[in-house]
Here is the input.
Amino acid sequence: MNAVKRCDGMSRRDFLRVGGLTALGLGLGDFFHLQSVFANNTLTAKAKSCILIWLDGGPSHLETFDPKPDAPQEVRGPLSTIATNLTGVRISECMERTAAIMDKIAIIRSMTSPLGEHNLGTQYLMTGYKPTPALAYPTFGATVAYVRSQSSNNASGDALTALPPNIAVPNFTGQVSGNGYLPSATRPFSVAGNSNKGDFKDRNGGFKVRDLDFYQGIDMDRLSRRRQFVNTLNAFSSAKDAGEPTVSDPELERAYNLITSPEAKGAFNFSDEPQDVLNRYGTGGVNEIGQSCLLARRLVERGVPFVTVNHTGWDTHQDIFQLKERYPTDRNAHLPSLDRALSALIQDLSERSILDETLVVVMGEFGRTPKINSQGGRDHWPNVFSVLLAGGGVQGGQIVGSSDALGEFPKERPVTPSDLSATLYTLLGIDPSLELHTSDGRPVRVAPDGAKVVSELIA
Here is the structure.
């Protein structure tokens, strides 16, 4: 979405800029050269794609990646800790598989934010910007999809062009719009509905994906006629007023591309996965977060730049022990499921030699209170929490920053969500100072001014 342009392709803002350049002795050709330089203001990407595992509700840092085994009982909680393959580093007892691959992982233990409400915290962590009523900021996935689309030369009609560039599995969190001020085509494409109602898995062991098959009464000819009609209207609108941007139907395009591409549809069918791989992610591949992570791996293999795995149920105000075991011998409680899925994903990416080009991020909107409350749970706590990263140019085998003895505040190396955003964009080859534009032409940096890259994370 750019500023309204004249028929020569220049916006009023650009015209004024040329006038300023003329005073410096630069002409129109110089302007277009500089414009192309700014448009390609990107870095060499260490990561081709990103898988964000979003733990919706705010995971407890004390029960996951920053336990306090020496703290009083009301702080350390009901779970024990386990040693990792890094000397002196311990994490939750439920993260046994993850502990064995800590040499591939980096954990920030000093994340800090002032926003302890779900909606506000989610916006801050997913965009790098503190929320404001004046502007809706795009999430990481939307920004990556937009920037990559501006520089993409792929026109082969393969799965990369058929699959949406920003996909949410099974769906996207409702706390943010997704695309913010960017075009609606960059909005996360949710592949499924509510898995608890049985519409998450199809009869072939893959995902039941909306728009992947024809609706009743709609065949290929009818869909093609509708697409041609929309394109004709677009062309008519464009010819009528060359100054108006072409309006497309991104949802229709997504449906058409998915339905007509066997390669794209194949990403959602797990029938070609070996049984040991399915078991690694979760028995038969049917565990929700395990299945989601497996699909995320299949999507990035096919060139999707950004996949969000949305795992709900981390808002643990009551009985935090349920993170380990909801019922006796329940293997699908949140912590064991996360451990299986995360370790399987990292191992799988590594064995396929694509871990170095796939950035894996695990986070939620904030942490939980240091002290267990009267209901055996923990409440919202944004003052300090943890984020895990692996692959995609991340220097593994390290802990960045620390919290104090009670897990209450940062002790060393505080990192803000803005700093994290600058770091993620840098790893993905996007300059944090790159300016995008709102619909009225207002320039906005992809990461906030003053955001600092966490340099020790970058290999």
About this structure: The longest strand covers residues 49-55. The chain is about 30% helix and 15% strand.
